[in-house]
C-alpha cells in the first residue's frame, strides 16, 4: 500500500512540475494511439457496415476472422509486423522498423477488428428495412449513409472507445516494432516496463496512473458524447 501511495505522490509531482520527459511520452502516446484509432475507424466502419448489410459467399468465415482478430494477442500482431518491416522482410526497404509509423501500423491492425466488430453489431441492430425505407422517402446514397450512421451512433462511439482502449494500453506490439527508443518511440506502456525493470517502482506506478488518467479522460469525453446522443 505504501508503494501505491508513493506512486500517487510521484504522479502528482510529475504532473505538477511538468516533467518534460513524461510530457513528451504522454503526447507521443496520444499521437500514436490516436492516429491508429482514426485510421482504424476510416477502414473499419465501412467494412463493418458492409459485413452487416451485404450477403456474400464466405461472409460467416469473414465474421469469424473478425471476431478472432478482436481477441488477437497484441504481441502476435507485433511479431507479424516486425517480420514484415525488418530489413530482411518484404517491406524492409521502407525502413519503418523501430519508428512511430511502425507502431501506428501495429496498433491499427489491433484496433481495426474491434472497430469492424462493434460497427457490424451496431448496424445489424438497426431495422433491416431501414435503408430501403430511407430510399423510398427520397434520401440519396450519402444521405442514407449519414442517417444510418446517426441511428447507429451509440455503437459507433463504442467502437471508437473499444479501438482506442485496445491500443493505448497494449505493450507487446509497441515494444516489438517500436523498440522503446528513448525520445523517439517510447510511450507510456513501454516506459512503465522500462522503469519496472530498473526497479523504479514509484516512477512506474506514477506512469501507470498517468496512463489510466489519460485513458479515462478520452473515454469520458466519448462517453459524454455517447450519452448526449442517446
How would you characterize the overall build of this protein?
The structure is a single chain. By secondary structure, the chain is mainly alpha-helical. It has one domain: MetI-like fold (Orthogonal Bundle). Helices cover 77% and strands 0% of the residues. The protein has helices at residues 2-17, 20-53, 59-70, 74-85, 100-124, 130-136, 141-151, 153-168, 172-178, 188-197, 201-228. Helix 10 runs antiparallel to helix 11.
Task: Please outline the helices and strands.
Blueprint: H1 2-17, H2 20-53, H3 59-70, H4 74-85, H5 100-124, H6 130-136, H7 141-151, H8 153-168, H9 172-178, H10 188-197, H11 201-228
Helix pairs in contact: 1-11, 2-5, 2-8, 3-5, 4-5, 4-9, 5-8, 5-9, 6-7, 8-11, 10-11
Amino acid at each position: 500500500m505504501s508503494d501505491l501511495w508513493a506512486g500517487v505522490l510521484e504522479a502528482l509531482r510529475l504532473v505538477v512540475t511538468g516533467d518534460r520527459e513524461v510530457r513528451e511520452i504522454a503526447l507521443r502516446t496520444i499521437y500514436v494511439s490516436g492516429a491508429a484509432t482514426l485510421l482504424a475507424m476510416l477502414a473499419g466502419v465501412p467494412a463493418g457496415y458492409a459485413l452487416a448489410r451485404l450477403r456474400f459467399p464466405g461472409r460467416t468465415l469473414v465474421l469469424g476472422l473478425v471476431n478472432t482478430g478482436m481477441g488477437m494477442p497484441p504481441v502476435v500482431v507485433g511479431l507479424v509486423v516486425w517480420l514484415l518491416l525488418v530489413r530482411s522482410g518484404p517491406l524492409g526497404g521502407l525502413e519503418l522498423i523501430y519508428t512511430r509509423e511502425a507502431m501506428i501500423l501495429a496498433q491499427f491492425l489491433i484496433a481495426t477488428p474491434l472497430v469492424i466488430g462493434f460497427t457490424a453489431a451496431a448496424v445489424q441492430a438497426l431495422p433491416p428495412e431501414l435503408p430501403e425505407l430511407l430510399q423510398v422517402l427520397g434520401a440519396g446514397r450519402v444521405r442514407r449513409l449519414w442517417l444510418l450512421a446517426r441511428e447507429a451512433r451509440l455503437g459507433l462511439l463504442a467502437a471508437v472507445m473499444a479501438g482506442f482502449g485496445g491500443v493505448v494500453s497494449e505493450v507487446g506490439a509497441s515494444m516489438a516494432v517500436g523498440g522503446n527508443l528513448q525520445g523517439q518511440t517510447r510511450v507510456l506502456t513501454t516506459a512503465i516496463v522500462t522503469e519496472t525493470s530498473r526497479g523504479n517502482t514509484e516512477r512506474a506506478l506514477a506512469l501507470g496512473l498517468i496512463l489510466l488518467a489519460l485513458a479515462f479522460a478520452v473515454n469520458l469525453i466519448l462517453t459524454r458524447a455517447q450519452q448526449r446522443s442517446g
